[in-house]
Amino acid sequence: MKFENIFGHEDIRTQFDELIKNKRFPHAIILCGEDGIGKSVIAREIASKILNKSEIREYADLIEWKILNDKKSISVDQVRKIIEEVNKKPYEGNNKIIVVHDMDSMTIQGQNAFLKTIEEPPVGVYIILLCKSQNRVLDTVKSRCQIYKLNRLNEDEIRKFIDIKYNITNEDEIRTLLAFSDGIPGKVDEFLNDKDLKEIRNIVINAILNIKNLNPKKIIECANKLSEYKKLWHEICNYFILYIRDALIYKETGNKDLLINLDKIDDVKKVASQFSMKQLNKMVEAVNYGQLNLETNVNMPLTYVEMLFKIQEV
């Protein structure tokens, strides 16, 4: 990837360029921002420039560490391996960059084991820690790093991203992507490329459209189907809310330009015609209740069953 193909974060990237140019880049930094905001890309850009490379790709002295596939966190054992890598000499030049993804998922024991290395890495070694939230990163770790927060892209930046990467020109489709991205380019990629998310959207809208005709067996089947997407429960609830929200707005204003699901406008109109404002607001309450239970790890299939029955009863 060429540096000019990176979208947004101009101010912070310029700041990094100046630090690298003047050989004042910190030995350890934390890049904080939501998933899909561009942390990994910015980290690789920093690494490429420190290594005096002209583009972003794999390099021998750019080492990235992620949570192992069968694990939920970065353990002390994995941290020990990271520390071993930190202390190895660079392969090609005088510099080496260690990028640790999901730092906020590193165990407390792991963070404590990593402290000394973060504070005093070998000369020429730069450590970049990526996290979604600083809340789960120890204060002792944060105090040893420079912290930089990546903000959401503005509409013009997201439009440019959509245009250059996907060459989409249909304004209704662009506006749908703008709404779902909420300033996060990675969400555009997910919306267009993630088959699971496409399937979930279809399940959700079909459930809302047909909820009055679903017998208990069908509701349980729908709940079980949704439960197959265990890690996407937040997206499932969000899709319910967004469809109902669009139906409320269309019912009140009749203005499709205010809708998010413009690619599903016919379905939104059907929902708006089937339910009253009071019923739609009750649906929102049912989904919010379901989301609250999911956040507190209540049984997932049971939560979806209860939520769907509440929607049916409005």
From TrEMBL:
EC number: 2.7.7.7
Keywords: DNA replication, DNA-directed DNA polymerase, Nucleotidyltransferase, Transferase
Catalytic activity: DNA(n) + a 2'-deoxyribonucleoside 5'-triphosphate = DNA(n+1) + diphosphate
InterPro entries assigned: DNA_pol_III_delta_C, DNA_Rep/Repair_Clamp_Loader, P-loop_NTPase
One GO CC term, this protein: DNA polymerase III complex
The keyword Glycoprotein appears for this protein: no
MF terms in GO: DNA binding; DNA-directed DNA polymerase activity
GO biological process, one term: DNA-templated DNA replication
EC main group: transferase
Name of the protein this chain belongs to: DNA polymerase III subunit delta'
Source species of the chain: Clostridium felsineum
